Amino acid sequence: MDNSYDVIVIGGGHNGLVNAAYLARAGKKVLVLERRYVLGGAACTEEIVPGFKFSVCSYVVSLLRPEIIRDLDLPRHGLEILPLDGTFTPMPSGDYLWRVNDHGKTHREIARHSRVDAEAYDEFGKAMQAMCRFVKPILSMVPPDPTTLNPRELMKLLFIGKRFQGMSSYDKYNQVQLMTMSAIDFLDQWFETGVLKATMSASGIIGTFLGVRSPGTAYVLLHHYMGEIDGAFRAWGFARGGTGAISNAIADAAREAGVEIRTEAAISQIIVKDGKAKGVVLSNGDELYADVISSSVDPRLTFTKFIEAQHLPGDFLEEVNRYKFRGSSGKVNMALDGLPNFNCMPGPGAHLRGAISISPAVEYMERAYDDAKYGNFSKRPYIDMVIPSLTDPSVAPPGKHVLSCFVQYAPYKLRPGLNWDTEKEAFGNTVVDTISEYAPNLKDIIIHKQVVTPLDLEREWGLSEGNIFQGELSLEQLFFLRPVPGWAQYRTPIKNLYMCGSATHPGGGIMGANGRLAALEILKDIKGAA
Amino acid sequence: MPAQSQGARDVVIIGGGHNGLVTAFYLAKAGFKPLILERGTQVGGAAVTDEFHPGFRCSTLAHTAGPIRPDIVRDMQLEKHGLRLITPEVCVTALSPDGRALTLYQDANRSAQEIAAFSQKDAAKYPEFQQSLAKISKVIGEALATVPPDIDHPSRGDLWSMLKTGRAMRNLGKKDMFRLLRWGPMAVADLVSEYFETELLRAVVAARGVFGTFLGPWSAGSALVLLIRAAGDAHPAGSAHFAAGGIGAVTQAMASAAKAAGAEIRTSAEVIEIRVQNGAATGVLLSTGEEIQARAVISNADPKRTLLKLTDPMHLSPDFVQKLQHYRGNGTVAKVNLALSGLPKFSALKNGDDAVLRGRIHIGHEIDYLERAFDECKYGNFSRQPYLEATIPSLTDPTLAPEGRHVMSIYMQYAPYKLKGDWDQQRNALGQTVVQTLAQYAPNLPELILTHQIITPRDLEEVYGLTGGQIFHGDLALDQFFTMRPLLDWARYRTPIQNLYLCGSGTHPGAGLTGGSGANAAREIVKELKR
User: Fold this and answer.
1) Cis peptide before B148, with omega less than 30 degrees from 0?
2) Closest chain A C-alpha to B213 CA, distance in angstroms
3) Partner-chain contact A173 B488, CB within 8 Å
4) Partner residue opposite B220 with nearest CB, options A146, A172, A215
5) A147–B178: do the CB atoms touch at under 8 Å?
6) Coil, strand, or helix at residue A55?
7) Cα dihedral angle (B38, B43, B48, B50), rounded to 10 degrees?
8) pLDDT tens track of chain B, all 531 residues?
9) C-alpha distances in angstroms, A5 versus A67, A287, A450, B20, B85?
10) Chain A residue with Cα closest to B215
11) Which residue stretches of A380-477 are H helix?
12) Interchain CB distance below 8 Å, B221 and A215
């Protein structure tokens, strides 16, 4: 039969594609269905203005698992990662903090603010690497079920316990703190320079509805420290051609392995009979059948939109409904006629080639969060900017540039009386105004501005409540609790239906681990059934 | 030359707070002769009753018990030693500025009836929440009663107690077990909104997760604080555990029990230094110059005061000192006590409804109100619209005030220890803010005030020896709990200095007036001293 497959993967984001590629390489007949016209989900490149290629949502990469790059041979399929060097933080005082990959330079730069901090910074880097070594294998692990007495599950817990015991007491101390503290409390133990702490703490809040002083954010800090490109820790980079190039490379590898990919193929329903997933119904009414359905979209869509409640246990549905999304960020992408000119470091230069962070003080970050708590976007938000066209000229016409701004906080749920359709413009203007305080020429060089609100992320990219990680990365939604306690092993209460998106362990970011781990579990079950 | 001491003692306990008294009692029971040295003129620490206006007595700081762990009440026979606990059927009345009030009782069904006036849905959910909370917090209670295990080298006893806790967890069943794992790190605001839709109910339950801490209801980990407190008292919003004669009666009874068991208590005896020789504590030095030698020194003072102030840090490794300096304990609580010429009239209550004031009175009608109160303290200001917990103990114990008159004891939060400005200059503004806030609910209150007593976080530090004004001897938070209280690897009441131990709230379990820290510490110290 033509319309029947071994596996249908719902969603052609990076996890769906990785999942499909691994399944096809194991000999399965796989179909990927993508609702949009372009592949990649939130890891996509789109030409919004002629000649300007925007990484519309996700814009830097670092967490992509090396085993996936290897297994799928992604460089051969066109993946090329260009390094992003350093983080530049302009300050209202006219000073700045500019950290780069060059160790000596960064040391001198931090010493300019505080000698003590410069020394501590080296120590801190070492400590974080030790933490990463502990956490990394956990990222490549199917979470155990802590409530069973199944020896296989207990072995996994024992493995984590043993690794923990294997650390020095210094590392243990740090690890426990990381899992429980706020980013600022954690950093306070190491550093005294406000702008340094503020900028470093920013990676603790990305994609969460937490402030830098909220406990639990220290862990997310680590999550962003784990970046690794070609074996170099903590390296962040761009994909040549924009973030969509990553998805395209994975898609290419998948197709080579025999995967069929359809775009503009939205599904309206997952067919369930006798407690088993049988296939999907497309929005045009076509029905497609498969032995296994693997959903890379988030649990809210999978279980409350595509499946009728009658097929699911009430307890499970209750847990799905309380799973927290609460998007807190937006994106503003700009096509520029030139380069922004920063007051504190005028003219073009290497400082524009890395990340530019608007995070001048801890109190600035905390106040940005306070606005969001009561349903307002931050009057002065945290902004993480990159200008990929400086490193990859292919994304803009000669002499022109692309400015990509990640903005937090932009709460999905605005206070009563406000809605994102009417606030969108004001939000975009706030971002431009905020940056203009540091680079006043910005307003004069904007050719086009694309504003992506949390509501846009939901409508256009299917990210419920605009959460970029398909659900908050908060402690109670990690590891064996992600997305639903007891259902963290990619399986669902419906037989033959699996989850493989960012809502599963180990969470969001362009990691691909979710898609791969889910594929391995699916293959295990198929083998077991045969 | 220091004055000669009367000879070496076996155990000296620094500080006669409730935990010091409990530790002394158990040590005496085990055959030791503990000597308690209390700086003040009476024992009790933060659990004291004072006459702050002629004829008016009030629980100066703590105004309700945690409650005291039942086994401690039993062992110490506190009732025989004069303690009469008063636990009114009313737990708490939460007031709303829209003129409504919600009263929660000991009885879940009666509470549910009250809640039904706000939401039928919440009324139906309430008993379920109370049940789940009771089940889960019971398991936590078991963990609280144990000595945290040694992480590096768990002993056989540690493994046994971990196994027991593990078994207790497993007995919860899958659903509640996952709840326990999931709830701990949550924000209490999230937890309560999973169950309830009524803001007033959400807020009065959530308040328990932030009381005394540097957390707002939206801070992750505040749910754990609720669970810890629920371990001693499973009522969702907390009961009102008073003592006849004010909370000082609890520590008076404890002192009497400790003395009867063989402990000695000296008041007005301020320890200014812990003597250390060759890495071991050898005794203490008093402000009078008197030196008392002892085989073991146990400190009921907080960890920072004990190890960074009373001990010369040169006896500690720089790494330990640094970690302890980072032990967080910046207080957020202030206290205002009022002597009143009559009972204030709350507009939300009908005439004759005064019975509902016999429990605690909660001001902070919605989650956002509490969170905004917290926001101010992050930036070094005290809340202009504070969260208040008030009691009128003279309603249940008329001996506290002359006939027809009353005392009102009010906890105010948030009052940051690190204030922008000076607490001595802000003291009256703080008092005014509290009175004005209450006056929004009881307009006649200002005219009833005969006198007021205002205690700022600075006073808590200076007068009561609570470093940073932190009423729990250090913030209650995920990273300062269980095996991490006060520091990871130093959660077993020992210190890096041999023969120097901790028994105060800065050790596990540490929350509130329960005696848990003192009892756990005594068990561990007896084991070690008998070795």
Assistant:
1) no
2) 13
3) yes
4) A215
5) yes
6) strand
7) -90
8) 344 445 578 999 999 999 999 999 999 999 999 999 999 999 999 999 999 999 999 999 999 988 899 999 999 999 999 999 999 999 999 999 999 999 999 999 999 999 999 999 999 999 999 999 999 888 888 888 887 877 667 777 777 777 777 777 778 888 888 888 888 889 999 999 999 999 999 999 999 999 999 999 999 889 999 998 898 899 999 999 999 999 999 999 999 999 999 999 999 999 999 999 999 999 999 999 999 999 999 999 999 999 999 999 999 999 899 999 999 999 999 999 999 999 999 999 987 788 999 999 999 999 999 999 999 999 999 999 999 999 999 999 999 999 999 999 999 999 999 999 999 999 999 999 999 999 999 999 999 999 999 999 999 999 999 999 999 999 988 888 888 899 988 889 999 999 999 999 999 988 789 999 999 999 999 999 988
9) 27, 12, 39, 71, 72
10) A214
11) 420-436, 442-445, 454-461
12) yes
CA–CA gap between residue B411 and residue B61 (Å, rounded): 8
H or E element at residue B337: strand B333-340
Q: How far is the alpha carbon of B485 from chain A, nearest alpha carbon, in Å?
A: 12
User: Shortest CA distance to B383 belongs to which of B361, B368, B402, B400?
Assistant: B368
Q: Does B320 touch chain A (CB under 8 A)?
A: no
Other CB atoms within a 10 A radius of the CB of residue A385 amount to 23
Contacts of B378 in chain A (CB under 8 A): 213, 366
Tokens encoding A519: 């594929």
Q: Is A213 in Cβ contact with B221 (below 8 Å)?
A: no
Spell B251-266 as b/e; 16+ CB within 10 A means b.
bbbbbbbbbebbbbbe
Nearest Cα to Cα of residue B374 among A374, A206, A382, A207: A374
Q: Say yes or no for a CB contact (<8 Å) between A214 and B219.
A: yes
3-state secondary structure of A450: strand
Q: How close does chain A come to B174, measured CA to CA in Å? A: 6
Identify the residue whose tokens are 């830098």.
Answer: A212
Q: Report in angstroms the alpha-carbon separations of A411 from A160, A286, A331, A369, A381.
A: 36, 37, 12, 10, 11
> Exposure pattern of A184-216 as b/e (b: 16+ CB <10 Å)?
bbbbbbbbebbbbbbbbbbbbbbbbbbbbbbbb
Biggest alpha carbon–alpha carbon distance for chain B: 74
* Predicted complex ipTM: 0.87
- Tell me if residue B457 falls in helix, strand or coil: helix
Angle of helix A115-139 relative to helix A103-113, nearest 10 degrees?
A: 130
Q: Could you tell me if B208 and B238 are in contact, meaning their C-beta atoms sit under 8 angstroms apart?
A: yes
Chain A contact for B159, CB < 8 A?
Answer: no
| Bridge partners, A405 (sequence order) | A332, A385
CB contact under 8 A, B185 and A476: yes
Closest by Cβ to B182, choosing from A176, A210, A485: A485
For testing the chain A interface, which of B158, B177, B213, B378 should be mutated: the one with the most A CBs within 10 Å?
B378
The H-assigned helical ranges of B70-119 are 70-75, 108-116
Three-class SS state of B176: helix
Query: What is residue B204's three-state secondary structure?
Result: helix
Here the tokens at position B80 are 């025989």
For residue A113, the number of C-alpha atoms closer than 13 Å in the C-beta half-sphere is 23
pTM for this structure? 0.92
Angle formed at CA A421 by CA A418 and CA A424, multiple of 5 degrees: 90
Task: Specify the residue for token string 């019971």.
Answer: B138
The Cβ of residue B198 has, within 10 Å, a number of other Cβ atoms equal to 21
